[in-house]
Model the fold of this input.
Amino acid sequence: MKLTSPKITCLMECSIDGRIDEQRWSRMYDPDGEGNPDVYYETRDKIDPQVALLGRTTIEKNFTSKRFSSDSFTPPVSTAPFLGIRAKEKMTAVFDAQGTLAFDSNVIWGSTLIMVLGSSLVSEEYLDYLRKHEISYIFAGADGHDYKEAIRSLYEDFGLKNILLAGGGILNGHFLKAGLIDEIYLVLYPGIDGFSGTNSIFEYQGDDTDKPSESLTLELLGCKEIRAGVILLHYAIHKIEEE
Done:
């Protein structure tokens, strides 16, 4: 399936060694007291996405760690998407294949929540919980990893064309491997993490023979120093045509 209508832009902020846990970064050199500029959110506002895509771990870390629990597990009765009440115009889609996260409402960070699930991993009990809370959901194949199917559903079922991929690194890595990213904005913070194994921008989890970016090439569209040493990089991703 070739997707031509939705545009997927990846926006991330990292240290100069590509790490994304800002609590681990070295202190910014700031002799003039400019402070850390909000380049990430300024860039996000410029992109003005209709929906942001986030992974389960990112939501657990930054929004909620509540877990759904049930004494029974019934396979889904239907794998049709569910369109709940659209409380806010902007939307956030959370990839949680097994259906583990629990929410008090269908609003997250001022946007309407959509859950992206695996049809063979999630229970009917969880789907019923989402429906009762008017939380929309779609399916990304049986295991929750059919990212092209998820994008198709977001486009056809919800009319979402301008899509922001906002991590974390594992979700970004899967989208990179699937060739679904059109552009990258990278906010480069003037600091270092330096520790081996900490989370980075792209983390495709495969074996050492996998090359998730093998068929891609990057075109630099912009490189700008904003202030306080923060650099904004902008790339277009092109797919290499096989000969």
In short: The two ends are 20 Å apart (CA to CA). Strands lie at 7-14, 51-55, 91-95, 107-108, 111-117, 136-139, 162-165, 183-188, 216-225, 231-239. Residues 53-160 form one domain. The mean pLDDT is 94.
